[in-house]
Amino acid sequence: MDAATTASMLHTLQDPTGIPSHPLIFQVLMVFTWIPHILFVNISLGAALMGLYALTKRQDPHWQLFSEAMTKVAKVGVSLLIVLGVAPLLFTQTIYDPQWYASNVLSAAWVIGFIFTLTIGYLAWFTFYMKNHGGHAPVWAFWLGVLGLSMFLLDGFIMHVLAYQGLHPEQWLAWYTPGGKVDMSGTGIHAYELPRFGFFMAMSVTVFGAFLVAYGDYFKVRADRAPAYLAFARGLGTKIALTGAVLQLLFLLWWLMDVPAGIHIWSHPMTWLLLAYLGVLVAAMWLARNKAEGQGYRLMALSVGMAALVAIFREVLRMAYMSPFHYNILDYTVHWDVPSFALFLFTMIGVGGLMGGFIITLVYKAGRVQGAYQADAGVSKLGTGSLASTVIWVAAFLGVGIWIWLRNNG
Ligand code: HEM
Known about the structure:
Blueprint: H1 3-13, H2 23-55, H3 61-95, H4 97-106, H5 108-131, H6 139-165, H7 172-176, H8 194-218, H9 227-258, H10 269-288, H11 298-322, H12 338-367, H13 377-409
Helix pairs in contact: 2-3, 2-6, 2-8, 2-11, 3-4, 3-5, 4-5, 4-6, 5-6, 8-9, 8-11, 9-10, 10-11, 12-13
The structure holds protoporphyrin IX containing FE.
Residues 34, 37, 41, 78, 81-82, 85-86, 88-89, 92, 118, 152, 155-156, 159-160, 163-164, 166, 196, 200, 314 line the site of protoporphyrin IX containing FE.
């Protein structure tokens, strides 16, 4: 399909009712809410792989302990990555609805299969987790763990396909009507980009390595965690992080070479910023490789910075792919809906901020205490505040709904 027809198709597919606030707000939220999603994807995939690998070396008590701990990390991580995937999903489908929905419909069977494979994968992983205690995990439980990880990888690949197919609207019609015949099965995987998917897998290696170093440091205050075990985890972490950072740099170069020349990605400053940052990351991981002790959360903070740049780069790339079709989110029709936007903002900052802040603080502090944890005054206040904000939110939510209903039916 030529560029002009593709452009008019994209604009026709946009929601005719428009969006309720400025598109830039959705774009910024989309980019920044994706960061926690991908960080938990990275930590979970790394922990799952290492949890399984460590089990094969369980004769050594450190590896056994490590296997149990990482199995648990992946169990918690996957549940969080799912929850944290919802926000960017909502924002993506608001400003990139033609891209997201067309891609989803073209591979509908995979999208529906995503739910089932994720459920099966999580159940398999949970069973493995239940059995992986005290070095007694039976062989079948190990294979269930392998099944779980395979499903998570498949789901990551489906996510990648959905994102990538959305970048090629000029091909949608050909994919929908192969050989001139309409194919409504939705069973096709029409396009994927190995270097791009490989980059996110390599990123899992880096982020997981940095996470391990932070993990070793976090538990230092706990008497029931042997210093030798924590040093073992930290040492492993620095090596894994270095390997990941190098792999990421290589995959990024391959990815950039794979992007069509017409996209002009090499002339974008974000490309060079990301390349330079990865260079710095490799150097930081190299310097830390034999000095795992005392790194604290530094490598983790560097990884979070890297994830932020990757998130922005993904969006820069999408905008570049869309520009030949004159698809600019700033052109989106806006019908300001101030009350719903205000409610959304207050929900995010008030309820989300307070409740999220409370849970993170609580989990962080409780995990560093052996046995029962007694909340201090600050945490208690945060708990009371978050509960109060939730009550106010429920009252406001119902109140606005009842008020509108009465106004329309009165
Ligand atoms: C084990 C499960 C999952 C894995 C391994 C995974 C992994 C990934 C990866 C690697 C990407 C980047 C793809 C690319 O840019 O090429 C991605 C993007 C994304 N994921 Fe996930 N994901 C998982 C589950 C979920 C779930 C359950 C949700 C939603 C509830 C979700 C929402 C998103 C969104 C919205 C994007 C960005 C799409 C876009 O910008 O076009 N993911 N995910």
